Sequence to fold (419 residues):
Amino acid sequence: MREIGELRKKVMPLLDISREISDAELYAAIDTVLTEESRRTYFTLSDRLYCRKALYDSFRRLDILSEALEQEGVTEVMVNRYDRIYIERNGRIEPFGKSFSSPEKLEDVIQQIVARVNRRVNETSPMVDARLADGSRVNVVLPPVSIDGPVITIRRFNDHPPDMEQLIAWGALDRRTADFLRILVQARFNIFISGGTGSGKTTFLGALAGFIGSGERIVSIEDSAELRLASVRNLVRLEARAASAEGKNEITIRDLIRNSLRMRPDRVLVGEVRGPEALDMLTAMNTGHDGSLSTGHANSAKDAGDRIADMVLSGSSGLPLAAVYGQIASAIDVIVHLGRIRDGSRKVLTVHSVDGTGEDGRVRLRMLVRFVEKGEKDGRIVGTFERCGKILREEKLRSAGLLQDLRENERGADSENGG
Fold:
């Protein structure tokens, strides 16, 4: 069977590229070429169907990436160069085994991706974040920054975002911990989700948002829109915008958070804080928008507090460090730390309450839940989620009428822990 790249070259002359081509016309041109090729080379029906789909993908979709993204269990696609593609399937990284026909074809696909979300990437601006139509996250890096050619990293999201029930089924947390977090969300605790790259922060944020009442107005703010909050009806989604080629018309996360406070939100969801917008997130949490949620990179819950302080100071160098930690301790009630353990699975590793500041001036944490490994079974890590502390901030629970629910949850945890 001939290479798809060779077949594509034969389809091109049959298309009138001076106007928009319908799918029917494209398929007709593809079928013409495949019929002609079948007279020279034997095609099985499966060969013909494969070539037909691959050629369509090369014109209309993402070429070889479409096939990679459609495979069962694939959560990440990593293109190191046009002929070096890797996929992550069920937590394991493996070679994809197929490649683009040329570096030029890879570059065409990149421009197609970024154009869909009104972004640009070139030698002058060689890095960009974008998303696919299904919400999957895309990061692109071009030469001269990437030495061996264009690089694409795609984080694929499920067609149906996992809710908390699915996360429980996957073992990311147990039901009692999920119920505990439900109580905190419904009592309007401000929750920050921390974790490393690929730990599932955005997915977990979406699952937590499923506990928000249907009558609340939510404003979600992201650098590149990824959150899919099907359970939230009164939802406003905002996305940052990069500057134009002239360096104008940029709209930052900071701009969006500030504007969101004029949109009468009950809660603000910030997809991820990476810089000075951390101060605006804290301000939103401290100014009547209880129950807000956000995420950020950190190696531990303790590290999360320091990271947020660093981000605040990066844009407000005049603030005293003690005041920054005071803001964090006042705004954030709970830090949920996620991690990816050595078998590739994602877990809630700890849940901490924020209990003011300590003698060193930094955020003081109280551990509430931790995942404890018990061993391995069939190549998977097994363990339990242990309750190891009680939350002290009861005012919100009492106001929401959920203090008794929390007490029952704690008693159940004590019983399971043998207390």
